[in-house]
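User: My advisor, Dr. K., asked me to get a structural model of this assembly before our group meeting. I'm new to this, so sorry if the format is off. These are the inputs:
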Amino acid sequence: MNMQEATSKMKADSYKMAALSEDTRNNILAHVKDALIAHKDEIFAANAKDMAAAEENGIAASVKKRLKFDEHKLADVTNGINELIKLADPVGQIQLKRELDEGLVLQRVSCPIGVIGIIFEARPDALVQISSLCIKSGNCAVLKGGKETANTNKALFDVIYSTAVANGAPEGCMLQASQHNEIDELLSCNKSVDLLIPRGSNAFVQYIMNNTKIPVMGHADGICHTYIDKDADIDKAIPIIIDAKTQYTAACNSTETLLIHRDVADEMLPAIARSLKDHGVKLRGTAEAAEIIKRAYTTDGQTNGSHTKAATDSQNDFEIMGDDDFNTEYLDLILSVKIVNDVQEAIAHINHFGSHHTDCIVTENADTAALFMQLVDSAGVYQNCSTRFADGFRYGFGAEVGISTSKIHARGPVGLEGLVTYKYKLYGHGQIVDDYATGKKQFHFKNL
Amino acid sequence: MNMQEATSKMKADSYKMAALSEDTRNNILAHVKDALIAHKDEIFAANAKDMAAAEENGIAASVKKRLKFDEHKLADVTNGINELIKLADPVGQIQLKRELDEGLVLQRVSCPIGVIGIIFEARPDALVQISSLCIKSGNCAVLKGGKETANTNKALFDVIYSTAVANGAPEGCMLQASQHNEIDELLSCNKSVDLLIPRGSNAFVQYIMNNTKIPVMGHADGICHTYIDKDADIDKAIPIIIDAKTQYTAACNSTETLLIHRDVADEMLPAIARSLKDHGVKLRGTAEAAEIIKRAYTTDGQTNGSHTKAATDSQNDFEIMGDDDFNTEYLDLILSVKIVNDVQEAIAHINHFGSHHTDCIVTENADTAALFMQLVDSAGVYQNCSTRFADGFRYGFGAEVGISTSKIHARGPVGLEGLVTYKYKLYGHGQIVDDYATGKKQFHFKNL
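Assistant: The format is fine. Below is the predicted structure of the whole assembly, which you can bring to the meeting.
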């Protein structure tokens, strides 16, 4: 069966999936949790194959850590399923109840989206999380994980799928795509697939967005900013920028650009630059930022009694970049630096060069913060905390299917709420529009 | 200035537009209302030109009625603006307030989408409604109306735009596109335009959807169904189907297909068919539906004492169509008819052939209705009332920017709520993620 046929069959089954009761969906999740534990030896054995292949292919240790699926990761995902079971049902929520006229009642009720295609990175725990979220929200899912964890994914999928079907889910509830060419096939299934959620590199997500008629939810890049205002508290600014840049450099919510108010640049930038250097961060930026940072590094050198060495270091450590070169997502220990005249310039810079993901102002001035948070056009606008907080778990959503920088549908970290839509149910007793058009009857609109 | 430059400038101004206070936006609307009345002579004169051109081009009377902008239409739109001013502010609503940890507070706040491109039919009142909705919701708008009302649109736009700017809106708040080729230019402005709302023919909306990277909200077609269940009350069924088909045939929410349960087809279909015939509706459908309807027409003929004429009529009035030919949107006094074995077949037919717009079941059986309304995958699912109710005004939204059949973002009739998104605001005091990652601190997630 090709992808067109498979998703078309899934579409037909999506109505059955959407009709499963909350109890049935939570019961499936409970059985999935037990089955994952019961089949852990097969899953770990499959993961051992993936790990051996990773070893052979010389994959970096940091990446291998993500590929690994062991007792610890199993405990994480089963705990996650327990939490998910406890979350309120996202389906069947009555969002509006209004009597339009006597005996004519309108309800807006949340319901599953239908068929969702999710393409995610090589992380076996992601497969469990995503499929659990889809079960909880009554959606059918096409799952395509990274090839580096193909064996683990297959083992996990087989357990989850067979358990779901054995406990009441329709046959077309889930489908695993394992071949890379199936991604292109999936992109053409706009008649059957309601939403695509791609996770991965900028280039990959851009490719998805540019090659399908299916709505796409996600983000291509994360060019996040931290702006140090003239009213910043330096004792907050330094830990925030260090965390935002270095806590996990590969994350989309890491800060890529530091903006600093001109009035405090001379005073604060040297200390910030030295601290960043201590954490292994290389700086790039405008010529005027370079001047201040070079002095900081030089002073640093002098303190250590080695002026000449520090001067050389500072040339290696700081690269001057043009004003129009602030749209790079480093995902590495590199940070762009720019001095701005005021908060307005910071806002304009962020709206122009940013990716509308998450941006922070460090300031003690509530008015400046309010202005920044209103005018910066991003999914997350922060005062005095690290941009790394942009995450569904940290927001208390229990789980996250991805982060969206779109303004349509869900924005920011997307939990269960982003996996449902709604429908309007209208209950009448023979009412016709002509009676209202001719003025024979009038609407009275009473919210119930 | 071309469309790329114009929308790029508009994008920069959209942050100012988004920051206008509720008072400023409502004040602009109040002034717009007064200005339309003050400038009514110029507007009516411009409309006279459009009406004269319509006369010259032999445009149908029914269409001319929509082009006309007179005292009556002016009163409608100014009343509409008054109602809009009274509606709750869609911007700045706090949708979620949660303490993640002590001194770390998350808020989800509604905000304007930004720049919206709206392409609408030749109806001058639509220009006023749409621009008012965008002002109320703090959005910038590119407006492209039908060419048949170009003079009226220009006069209306000039009044609205100059009044908005004079009362605090930024220069880039609104832009009128008047040339058809500007639509294609607009489609390429995905860097500046956040959302497109096309209204018009199926082919036109499909064209928009297939030729832009900008998210599109709307509906290409409206293939709505009315299903007469075995437990239907015939006294409700007949007025409902007559209204759903004939009250305004050109509307997207008119019923295009009548489905009827086999158990009651013999009993109910003849009466329904005769009533539809009396209202000038031509029927098409499956061979078995034809058999029943021909008998109805013949009986009808016999009653009138003219058997032969009726038999001939029935051949002209009923066209047999294949089972796979139910995907036509007639927008005319034509109705497809099919007999189904049960509600499940009706649901499957609607989900397969429908456009997920609005579909109705006529039944006195609450369980059957519940099943239908859960499983039919449409923006509107109705029991015992006309599909023509699918409309923002009739739902009590005060105004409508369009109807969406998408499941992403707004679905069904879209009022102000569909013109806003949200952002997450996070207020901290120097919090960093590393403290939570290392277990030094824990989130406690308290909704405030």
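One thing worth pointing out at the meeting: Chain B touches chain A through 76 residues (CB under 8 Å).

User: Perfect, thanks a lot.
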